[in-house]
Design brief:
Blueprint: E1 13-15, E2 33-41, E3 47-54, E4 60-67, E5 75-76, E6 96-104, E7 109-118, E8 121-129, E9 136-142, E10 146-151, E11 160-168, E12 171-172, E13 174-179, E14 186-192, E15 204-207, E16 212-214, E17 217-228, E18 231-241, E19 249-253, H1 263-266, E20 274-281, E21 287-294, E22 298-305, H2 306-316, E23 317-318
Antiparallel strand pairs: 1-22, 2-3, 3-4, 4-5, 6-7, 7-8, 8-9, 10-11, 11-12, 11-13, 13-14, 15-17, 16-17, 17-18, 18-19, 19-23, 20-21, 21-22
């Protein structure tokens, strides 16, 4: 394989100088940490983050935070917004984690996928909401062990599609499944395989924020987990999926594009982690605001250009079936 070497690593994502934009001490009630959050822009123009908050028991719940500029003056719900319901949903007995938010025009609602954590392990649950006050739980849609899921905002050939990351005897890879009604899922299809060897995305990969629709297809940010003697490194790379058939990956990045560098990313409850779960797009359809968990302790923000990411991917990308 011919590999192109760059003179420098491009800064496709720029950390905001206000980072971290949300910290545990910002919360109106006591929490240990706040991190991996879903994100969306509301009709009012406000940015809403649905933030994973972990208490001192170790369990997590979700709390909404709203901001006019997506950076400052966050209005955080005074109490948890979306909490585990173990009596009716025993799969949530040990908490709910890592939400992704997608606006679904056909439904006129937001779809929130999240990790339900219980004695059987982590699975994927789905809830619908119009206002982030009331939630309609669909329940478990992908059984354990599975996580890192997001609904596509539109049907694919007449069916709903969900991208997710099950763990199986072939590893922790990215799959896509289909449903006629959001409740019954099948046609499970492998989309992207974790690589073997020295790669940044070796052995374990997963979706980061929901897919980004663009003219070229669906731009996917995904995290790779590389084990080292000092622990695991979480970094983010890119892949491009076919617009008409999103189970078909066209190209994936040879290199990671975003990894832990800042002190708040390298030091915390879990060191050396950047973990994006949500983004917003400006009205130009290009300017991206990416919200990510930093060291499983706080929420940070990075900005970038979708067009620049696509151009970089075309330059350094490799065929999706390359695993060595």
């Amino acid at each position: 394989m011919s590999v192109r070497y760059e003179n420098h690593r491009p800064r496709l994502l720029k950390r905001h100088p206000a980072n971290p934009v949300l910290r545990p001490q910002d919360w109106p009630y006591f929490v240990n940490s706040v991190f991996n959050c879903g994100a969306t822009r509301l009709p009012s123009g406000e940015t809403l983050l649905l933030v994973r908050a972990e208490d001192c028991s170790g369990e997590s719940h979700l709390t909404a935070a709203r901001s006019a500029d997506g950076v400052t003056n966050w209005q955080i719900d005074p109490e948890p917004t979306f909490v585990p319901d173990p009596e009716r949903h025993p799969e949530e007995r040990w908490g709910i984690e890592d939400p992704r938010i997608v606006w679904v025009p056909e439904l006129g609602k937001y779809a929130v996928t999240y990790t339900c954590y219980g004695p059987a392990g982590p699975g994927v649950s789905l809830a619908l909401t119009e206002d982030f006050r009331e939630f309609e739980r669909i329940g478990v849609v992908m059984p354990p062990e599975d996580k890192d899921a997001a609904l596509l905002p539109e049907r694919v050939r007449g069916r709903w599609a969900m991208i997710h990351r099950p763990v199986s005897n072939v590893g922790a890879n990215i799959w896509m499944s289909f449903s006629p009604d959001l409740r019954h899922w099948g046609d499970h299809t492998l989309v992207l395989r974790a690589r073997r060897g020295p790669w940044w995305d070796v052995n374990k990969i997963g979706l980061s924020p929901p897919l980004i629709p663009c003219e070229e297809g669906w731009l996917m940010m995904y995290h790779g987990v590389k084990p080292t003697p000092a622990g695991s490194l979480y970094r983010v790379g890119l892949a491009l999926l076919d617009r008409e058939d999103p189970t078909r990956c066209l190209v994936r990045s040879h290199r990671w594009m975003f990894g832990p560098e800042a002190d708040y990313e390298r030091t915390g409850d879990v060191a050396d982690v950047v973990f994006p779960c949500g983004y917003t797009l400006a009205d130009d359809g290009n300017t991206l605001s990416l919200y990510y968990g930093a060291a499983d302790t706080c929420v940070a923000l990075a900005t970038g250009s979708v067009r620049e990411m696509l151009a970089w991917l075309k330059t350094v990308g490799i065929p999706a079936d390359r695993t060595e």
